[in-house]
Amino acid sequence: MRKISRENDYWQIAWIMLLIWAYFKFVYYVKNVSYPATFIFIVFLIQFALTILFFHIFTSFSSKESSLKSFTFTMVYSLFPTFIWFLANSILYLILPPPRTNSVSGITFSIVFISFSVAILIWKIILTYLAVRFSSKLPFYRIVYAMILYLCVLSPYIIVLYKLKLFRVPFI
What we know:
Layout: H1 11-30, H2 37-60, H3 68-77, H4 80-95, H5 104-136, H6 140-163
Helix pairs in contact: 1-2, 1-3, 1-4, 2-3, 2-6, 3-5, 4-5
């Protein structure tokens, strides 16, 4: 992440965003989605840009070395765990669609899937922490405070997305 925070090649961001757009197109055809894939991708881009701006603005009060470019690169790379989780979830939806049973194999699948999800979440938290750390150069407690504040601000937004049936889990 330290090296990524000093990156200048914007084509990397373009390729990652193209990969995410392809995922949204894939899901549009796999699942019964209420909104077109392009619309959902635009919503994702807006919420992702707001996430970058939130962390940049919040940390710029305490750090003079905060750079929007650095935040953009590191936050884009912190999307990999999210992408992997969403892709695995969609592929498992094809292979083993809900409802799942209370049999031994169903319970085993649930335990494995929850373990996988928790591991991906921990990876996501670590990458987000490192993204903010190397982009803002703030100490640990200020970064944790910024992340908790972000989750507090994000919570009502997540509920709105769920009610509008855009995302059950936001792609952040």
